Amino acid sequence: MTGEKLLYIETFGCQMNVSDSEKVAALLKSEGYAPTADSSAADLIIVNTCSVREKAEHKVYSYLGRFRGLKRERRFLLGVGGCVAQQEGERLLKRVPWLDLVFGTHNLHLLPEMVRAAEQGERRAAVDFIDNETRLDLFPRADEAGGATRFVTVMQGCDNFCSYCIVPYVRGREISRRSAEIVEEIRNAVAAGVREVTLLGQNVNSYGLKTPGELTFAGLLREISAIDGLERIRFTTSHPKDISPDLIACFAELPKLCAHIHLPAQAGSDIILERMNRGYSRQEYLAKVAALKAARPGIQITGDIIVGFPGETEDDFLQTLSLMEEVRYTDIFSFAYSPRPETAAAAFAGRVARKETQERLDRVQELQRDMTIERHAGFVGTCQAVLVEGMSKRGDQLYGRTDGNLIVNFAGDPALIGSLVDVRITRGYPNSLLGELTTVQ
């Protein structure tokens, strides 16, 4: 054996978890662990988890079950991080006795020490929330360049306490990273070849609002937009109640800000929105959508929809369908409501029957599928600027994204990865576009 140890990371959930997994890989590099895509060869397997939906949590436990037999066959370490780890802590070590370590969302910095202890046979769980000053100094940041795109964490946590949402309990209260550090990280990334950044946070719209003297999110976007060599800026996720007129104006004023926004409505009924504690009405949401479309004609809007929330009637549900038709989303993430620990909605009366919830989910997804196909068909014959991100899943084509965040597959030389190219769209599919390369920018 050469002494090099192999690390395999399986990531569930949102882009924040993807960013955290990148940080885990960077931290463990100093412990002699090199990344591998083969879990069967790994000396350390880290499962970065999501507990926002009950189904996602169950998927994690099912995945962990795969390793019970493998642990009997060969020696390797198994760790769990992310939101399920934060939620369960020591209970996870008891429930999964073949697990070696559990680290919560505030404890990435402890991982090297925990791995060293696990290598000596010590099982540990670390899920304490840390104070804000320490948290600011330990904010996840990308330490190495890797490709043309980069996730950059700008804030963490959430103070909204939507009645269905577990995020404040597993990610903690809201805190914004120092803007000077964010700008410096992006400058360094651009110098290393990054052309597009995606700013991450549970609610990026509220960036800086709790920090006296700090930039607002609109101000941060303007600072980042001024960085020479950076070509595209994206952000996620965006809470509708905190979208300011100044932020909407950025879509008109900043060419580098991509023509796409993920704006979760969750429901179309004022009654359900109030029970969800979303902080806006249907009309307020639609007014902000209209303002965004006016600021950036052609902006692509995606969203989230929850069906079967406690107390949701057929009329409430029909209002959600009508909201979808009015917004004309490019695409959505849609979910059947599932109660999560500690959330207010878990105690609500008026549970909707599982069969009815599933029928509503099917109707939402059918409507969105039709709208997405119609939207994609509208791009056929147009020429789109595409940032090439890699090889497609088929392996014989390149893929990239338009300014509006649409996936485009096309034939081309792998040497184009990282380049901006012009692609003429030839076909629209439910999940992507097909095109032909025309020019390289």
UniProtKB/TrEMBL annotation:
Binding site for [4Fe-4S] cluster 1: 14, 50, 83
Comment on bound cofactor: Binds 2 [4Fe-4S] clusters. One cluster is coordinated with 3 cysteines and an exchangeable S-adenosyl-L-methionine.
PROSITE patterns registered for this protein in UniProt: MTTASE_N, MTTASE_RADICAL, RADICAL_SAM, TRAM
Domain TRAM, chain residue ranges per copy: 377-439
Domain Radical SAM core residue range list: 144-374
Cofactor names: [4Fe-4S] cluster
Iron recorded as keyword: yes
GO molecular function, one term: 4 iron, 4 sulfur cluster binding
Primary localization: cytoplasm
Enzyme class of the recorded protein, top EC level: transferase
Binding site for [4Fe-4S] cluster 2: 158, 162, 165
Subcellular location: Cytoplasm
EC number: 2.8.4.3
Pfam family, one: Radical_SAM
GO annotation, cellular component aspect: cytosol
Keywords, ordered alphabetically: 4Fe-4S, Cytoplasm, Iron, Iron-sulfur, Metal-binding, S-adenosyl-L-methionine, Transferase, tRNA processing
MTTase N-terminal domain boundaries: 5-120
Family: Belongs to the methylthiotransferase family. MiaB subfamily.
Subunit structure: Monomer.
HAMAP family: tRNA_metthiotr_MiaB
Function, in words: Catalyzes the methylthiolation of N6-(dimethylallyl)adenosine (i(6)A), leading to the formation of 2-methylthio-N6-(dimethylallyl)adenosine (ms(2)i(6)A) at position 37 in tRNAs that read codons beginning with uridine.
Protein name: tRNA-2-methylthio-N(6)-dimethylallyladenosine synthase
The species this protein was found in: Geobacter hydrogenophilus
Gene: miaB
